[in-house]
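**Fold in tokens:**
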Amino acid sequence: MNKIKDVFIELIPFFLAIFITSPLSMLSGIKGELAITASYILIVIALFYIRYKKEELKLFLFGAVCGITVEGWGKILFLFSWQKFNSILPVPLYIPIAWGFGFIIMRRIGNIMIKK
């Protein structure tokens, strides 16, 4: 039962990100993209400020690189498309941040689940 509670606590930033960014996705163009990006940056900063675990910044950066690579190739191969956003990157600016954020959350939950 303690693991379930710990997993739920680690999922709070994830649900917070969904709650905050969902209304922002209604904005179109660069305003929406910048608003979502800023909200993800603030959430990640808060996540690290509240509890930073060793080497998580490296994991975050690795997740961001993986995210831009996967999503960029998906865009190039016409597997993904983002009609609302005209970004300077091949993907919206918030995508690498969201991937890095996801890597952190998955690691934390994975550590809870496999802990003996």
